[in-house]
Amino acid sequence: MFIDGQWKGNHLEQINVINPADKEIIAQIPKGGGAEAKQAVDAAYKAFKTWSQKTAEERSHLLFKWHQLINENKEEMAKLMTMEQGKPYKEALGEMSYANSFISWYAEEGKRIYGETIPASDSRKRLLVQKQPVGVVAAITPWNFPAAMITRKVGPALAAGCTVVVKPAEETPLTALKLAELAEQAGIPKCVINVVTGNPQEISEIWLKDERVRKLTFTGSTEVGKLLMRGAADTVKKISLELGGHAPFIVMDDADLDKAVQAVVASKFRNAGQTCICTNRVYVQESVAEAFSEKMTKAVIDLKVGDGLKEGIDVGPMINEEAVEKVKEHVADAVSKGGQVVCGGEELNKGEGYYFQPTVVTHADESMLCMNEETFGPLAPIAVFKEEDEVVQRANHTPFGLAAYVFTENIGRAIRISEQLEYGIVGLNDGLPSVAQAPFGGYKESGLGREGGHHGIEEFLEVKYISIAF
Ligand code: NAD
Fold first, then answer.
1. Cα separation of 371 and 23, whole Å?
2. Residues 15-49: pLDDT tens digits?
3. Of 360, 370, 409, 364, nearest to 384 (Cα)?
4. Which residue, 50, 113, 298, 440, has most beta carbons within 10 Å?
5. Which residue among 29, 140, 217 is best mutated to probe the pocket of ligand 1, counting the most ligand atoms within 8 A of its Cβ?
6. Residue 3, ligand 1, Cβ within 6 A
7. 224, 320, 376, 440: which to mutate for ligand 1, most atoms within 8 A of CB?
């Protein structure tokens, strides 16, 4: 663990880090708990005074150094990520540049934290508004994007002048620790970034109770997000929650089907379907349903599944046994309710790693689990619809509201549907909408707040109004 500018934790009980491609133990990391969580806050609190008083330019300079080192080490980090998380190496490299784009973007944006002057109604007054860093930030992150979910939080937090305590997922701590090592090498002062690994409940309990932690930023499941939201109430922390999704992918009868197939395959099967904005349900308009399903199935059959470090692999292993079991359960449930498996449907290389075949199920409807709950795996159910109003209503039927996709060549339809979707992100003829400069986040139970863009840095700032009378 990296706490108070030191590498610690060898004396503690250790947790195994497993490669999901072959179930081998690749490393051990300390099982930190309450004591380590508190030490990390002590350190971050101590560092806040000096870090927040640096100029935005000075902070930017250090963030750019970190960015440069990450760039120089991206191949090594991508390999590490593939080994602990499973995604194919080329996807891991892609994540490294996506992750790093948050650091460079916020290194710039931190210099544009502007205030305001407001016209007063009394000529002997001046009204000023300043933005100030919120203080110590606690960040809790998931395993599916081991680098990006950290930089998307730590980049804007540091640029705003906050210091951080980070708890990465138990499954993928190595990428997080490597990021901390590079931050140290970049000269980011001691204690500004602290990384605690270990027991999530014990660590978060301490952070939630500690009133010096002024902001909690969490990415993970809706279930844990709700727990943390309740826990943050006692000290009235600011919170940002990036939670689960259930993205509909809508294909209208005038869509460019080849473009839609390419996008749905990328959106559904990257990271073996373990992405919060990945397609969960495909809705195709009746007259093109057969043609679309055939083209999609052909593309899915071509996907190569295997160890992400091997050449030519499109889909890696899933994170663990439970993840595979959930896909199995969703496939069996869909079949029991009339779904037809047109490709895949089975676990692969059982005993070797956690693999599941990329799967397409047709004749799907909303009675099925996979049309309501996040499968978080390589299963694409296809449902058929008749009318525009019908598909909007069906697309909005879950409690989630993170990302939705619409494919149509008709501009009027495109605008009408996008505006009616209760989702924070709409990919219009676009299967990969996420970028550093745009706001990312959900409606409804998919979360609170936004990451990315100028919206993302506001989450780490307090607004101070100064009224001056003379
Ligand atoms: P998870 O909620 O189980 O874990 C996320 C983090 O919370 C991990 O660090 C974990 O150790 C910690 N955690 C678990 N239980 C906790 C507890 N009781 N108290 C405090 N911390 C706890 O989620 P996961 O399985 O790691 O990730 C998958 C989920 O994350 C999916 O639902 C996915 O949609 C969501 N996700 C959302 C986004 C987004 O931006 N909206 C991005 C990626 C993943």
1. 30
2. 999 999 999 999 999 999 999 999 999 999 999 99
3. 364
4. 440
5. 140
6. no
7. 224
Measured CA distances, 294 to 35, 153, 170 (Å): 56, 41, 40
Instruction: Find residue 28's DSSP bridge partners.
Output: 16
Sign of the alpha-carbon dihedral angle for 92, 96, 101, 102: positive
Query: Predicted ipTM?
Result: 0.94
Which ligand 1 atom sits nearest the alpha carbon of residue 220? Answer: 30
Amino acid identity of residue 68, one-letter, is: Q
Closest protein CA for atom 21 of ligand 1? 200
180-213: pLDDT as tens digits? 999 999 999 999 999 999 999 999 999 999 999 9
> Which residue, by CA, sits nearest to atom 18 of ligand 1?
201
**Residues recorded for the chain:** 470
The torsion angle over the Cα atoms of residues 427, 87, 182 and 201, rounded to 10 degrees, is: 90
Distance of CA 243 from the midpoint of ligand 1 (Å): 7
Angle at 358 between CA 355 and CA 359, to 5 degrees: 125
Give catalytic residue positions: 242, 276
Residues 6+ apart with CB under 8 A from 57: 111
